């Protein structure tokens, strides 16, 4: 047992592993699932200020990574377009893009987000700006990108992470030049938010994904 992990956290990780093993039975073996869970835990533990929710974050991130790996290995072929939104801290632009994408695409496409230098939490003013659109991103959390997530994406949208963004040959990349909302008020973030919404709708059109809503604007 990792000495940095408390008994409560160890119990929570064991419970998380049981859930993942049940959900990915027949797709991945126990060793692979536990390796992804514990490496996901380590990704957050090294920078977390509050450790209470680390096992839950690790489980959510491990689930995303395992789903991505299943796509890469051809074990999950649903034909849905998959998009990855990347920025520096995964706290503002990429989270807003993810929020709009999931809002409009519904079950018709898959989207993930990540950061080259993940922050501690999602930008509160970005959360407020998205709430004005009726979209709740308060339950999201900054996370790093991993190789399997990038490899599983059909399209990788980058927003300011420059050379730190992962490059895989043959994959479609698109850079969205947008101001960083860090330090801005919700009022100042609105134009950035609206431009992200416009670009997400255009991307969905290019991917031939029919939005479930015509507009989130009020």
Automatic annotation (TrEMBL):
Domain Phosphotyrosine protein phosphatase I: 81-206
Record keywords, A-Z: Arsenical resistance
One annotated GO biological process: response to arsenic-containing substance
The UniProt record lists the keyword GTP-binding: no
Entry-linked InterPro entries: Phosphatase-like_N, Ptyr_pPase, Ptyr_pPase_sf
Top-level taxonomic group: Bacteria
Classification via NCBIfam families: MSMEG_6209_Nter (NF046112)
Protein name: Protein-tyrosine-phosphatase
Organism: Herbiconiux ginsengi
């Amino acid at each position: 047992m990792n000495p940095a992990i408390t008994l409560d956290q160890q119990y929570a990780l064991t419970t998380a592993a049981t859930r993942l093993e049940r959900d990915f039975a027949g797709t991945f073996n126990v060793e692979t699932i536990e390796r992804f869970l514990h490496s996901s835990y380590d990704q957050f533990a090294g920078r977390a200020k509050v450790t209470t929710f680390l096992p839950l974050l690790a489980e959510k991130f491990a689930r995303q990574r395992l789903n991505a790996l299943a796509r890469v290995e051809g074990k999950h072929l649903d034909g849905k377009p998959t998009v990855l939104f990347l920025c520096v801290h995964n706290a503002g632009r990429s989270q807003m893009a993810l929020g709009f994408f999931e809002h409009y695409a519904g079950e018709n496409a898959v989207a993930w987000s990540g950061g080259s230098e993940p922050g501690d939490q999602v930008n509160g003013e970005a959360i407020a700006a998205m709430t004005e659109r009726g979209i709740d991103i308060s339950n999201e959390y900054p996370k790093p990108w991993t190789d399997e997530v990038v490899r599983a994406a059909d399209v990788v949208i980058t927003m300011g992470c420059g050379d730190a963004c992962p490059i895989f040959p043959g994959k479609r990349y698109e850079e969205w030049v947008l101001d960083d909302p860090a330090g801005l008020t919700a009022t100042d973030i609105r134009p950035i938010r609206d431009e992200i919404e416009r670009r997400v709708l255009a991307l969905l059109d290019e991917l031939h994904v029919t939005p479930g809503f015509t507009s989130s604007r009020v």
